[in-house]
Amino acid sequence: MPHAPEPDEDDLDAITPPQPVFHVEQALLGALLLDPHRLDDVSGIAADSFSTAEHAALYAAIATLPRPDPAEHARNTKWLDRVLAEGREQAHGLTASYLHALVQVCPWPSHAPAYARMVEAEHARRRLLTAAERLIHTVHDVSLPHPVQTVLSEADALAAVVDDIANRFPPRAGVLPRTTAPPPPAAPDPAEAVEEEQILLATATAYPSDIEAVRWLLPDDLTLPLHAGLWQCLTGLARRREPVDPVTVLWEAQQRGLLDDGSEPGEVLRMLAEPAGSVEHWGERALQRSLLATAEHTGRRIEAYAGDPANTPLQLVVGARRSLADIAAVRTRWQHATGATPTQWRRPAPTTRAGSPTTTVAHAARTTRATR
To answer: What pTM does this model have?
Structure first.
């Protein structure tokens, strides 16, 4: 029959370890319990580097209590008893049998520095995963009054974690993570994004002289391939100083093969004939949507990298920095668009992240052109 633990016994050594690092932590703690002076050879970790509360409490106790005399430590368990008492203040389930089990499972106490380095690497992965999850959560937080500013702050916090990991694990030749990156996320409200982009394209067609003022807006900022292609048509015609109207844009679209996907010419003409508001306003709306989507995609890529325990800290740093470069690029364009740093950013109306949808506002905007 399987052993049934006593009511006051938390048989921690019977728990199936969820990750290999659990065994590494056991080996490290066993080495330190067997030879406490090996703590002098351990660096780069703290109590919160461990994956369980019990291991964290044990390490804190070992690091806090005065080291025992080696000869006395070999003769009795007084110091181990003190470690157990200290550890139980934070983790009540610790038992004397678990401490003895840790000593027994440690293969080579002299390898304690190597074990500590493994614990540090796993802790770095967990930190990166947590920071990426916070970034993703912030992107979807509809309660934020200034989502771009807050998202960029979380991106900075994520970058700081990456930098700290890079300092702890100096890079050699860059090696990308082996993990397959997830696809870009879909727009949170595709219908609203499509409508606003159609208004942008129509307004730019009606007022092509305003296109120069939104050079920070790129085709990739738009959610549909047709819209991205039509924006390229508009910027191309404006750059060449050729006539711009729905008919010339449609012809340019045909020359670029944009109608090959089955788009109806009549539908394109109707879409380009309904301007409203200003090019700058709708361009900024599209860029904001692109920035938030880029931040989410970056967070999910780093989350995928950090969620794969096979990736080394070096691979995590290389992959995360490449991913964060995408945010940096769109951030620069956002600052050009708003004429201010993110901390000075003021959210335009209408809003898409809180309150009622802006579709009604967009329809109302068609009846009047904003002051330009």
So the answer is: 0.79
